[in-house]
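Notebook B, p. 112. Complex prediction, attempt 2.
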Amino acid sequence: MENEIIRIENLRRTFRVGNEDVHALKGISFTIYRGEFVSIMGTSGSGKSTLLNILGCLDKPTSGEYNIDGVSVSSLSKNQLSTLRNRKIGFVFQSYNLLARTTALENVELPLLYNNEISTKERHERALAALQAVGLENRMHHLPNQLSGGQQQRVAIARALVNDPVILLADEATGNLDTRTSYEIMTLFQQLHQQGKTIAFVTHEPDIAAFTTRTILLRDGHITNDCAIEPKSAKEALESLPVSDDY
Amino acid sequence: MNILNLIKIAIKALLRNKSRAILTMLGIVIGIASVIAMVSLGQSSTLSVKNQLSSMGSNMIMIMPSNQMRGGVNLGFASAKSLNERDLKSIRANARYVAAITPMVNSSAQLVFGSNNHPGSIQGVDACYLDIRKYELESGIMFDENDVKKFAKVCVIGKTVAKELFTNGENPIGQTVRFGTIPMKVIGILKSKGQNQMGQDQDDVVLAPYTTIQKRFMAITHYNMLFASALSEEQSEMAATEITYILRSTHGIANGSDDDFEIRTQEELLTTMSSITGMLTILLAAIAAISLVVGGIGIMNIMYVTVTERTKEIGLRMSIGAQNRDIMMQFLAESVILSLIGGVIGIIFGLLLSYAGCTLLKWPYVVSQTAIALSFLVCAATGIFFGWYPAKKAANLDPINALRYE
């Protein structure tokens, strides 16, 4: 049981649009265990964004049970949810969402600023360690507009790692990147996975999902497929890219 | 999030948009600067009035006869002939809070010296008049008790009179001027005192022994008024009361009847003048305060723009664990810092402005600590008041929508 990071049971989420109820999630259940690298796939309108919001504690289910790292989310207040996000979840977004005109290091430090238990010194150390983990320690004083898209996403991943979360939630994290850079980022995710990180990766690209260990397929608010797969190596995929493709 | 980080983040956010922050600050700078300048200049003008009034005399008390009524007709200001030598002697003998007292008798005529003439009024006074009115001699001597006793035909003249009559560079002292038909010898010249607050030339004076004026010019035995000075400023009210008491008894006025004289102290004059300048100060400060409010609205406006612009940042901060309170505090800190920095610059500008004003108007320069402290509080309050709603708006954003905001 203690290896369960996320357990959802019969989760429903209904939005009220005008006079109509829109059922975005129609009773889904799954469990993510420690050390899994799960991709959540689906077309737009399948409910994967809604699911991600709930998994990220940004939204609460209409009904059903959601446990993250042993904490039942449905009973928590808004502030408790904030604290939960701060301590247990690391977000990686499609558009990086780095603060402009703020150095990479400061961007990475950001989550720790909202944690009063962490001293300034520890904050610096942990941010530096996170940047090292994504291989950007020599760029720590660069501003986002001085970094390439792939580097910016690495900074964002470092920011997600810095609070040592129980799960990394990636929302189309390679959506804004070219194939080569996408594979580089996926290589990084696979490395993190090998180091024991639990990752949930929302994507609609099958070739990206192929790098994960398990795929959950959503369609119209239901899970239509949930199976473990043998992951492709992103590193090999990267090496097999034709060199001429480089710019 | 602790305060230090909060301030750091707020300053960093403001620096990201320097020119906008400076322009927003400008509103507060102008508001605070004008409030400070107005209050300081107001205080300076009050002080200047006070200084000028006290230059008119030291703790002066003026005693005038009441207006005389004859057959129901008011004969005008100080027309009664109720003050005389007996009153003077009685006050000199009995009053304990009075330092000096002199009678005053006025006569006016044309002053003539050679081919020059000057319209003037001659004031008959006692020798102690110089101390009471804070006049000083520039050259020559003041007439003394003997001159008073002998109705001596001597006079002391002010600078303006000297300039008008002695145009050929003669030494006025020892010269004889004609006052109407009566020749008078000039024995002293007064130091210049300039204009007083009401614009009167205080150097356009001729002083002579009061007995001379009484006997030789006007053939009267009463005085036009009495000038006294109290021992100190605080004692001038007591001195006035004392004089009232003495005069009522020498005049034999029964209890319940009105005085047949009037007493004005310098204090009263001061209070009147101060209340006028005080009112002006309040009026000007109120107008300045309006510009401060406009500045505050400028802050509010820019904070709304900032919140909208940074919706995505707010969403991100919320997604990584910022609580509503943190977001609220962040934006409040920005508006407060904005208005406080604006306030500090405004205070400096205001002080410089009032310094320039005082130098120009030759007023004494006063730094009003209360105004500065108050401005600081007002700045902080402005920042909080006008930053509150934008900050609240930011804090109440839904993180999901904020993150998707483009």
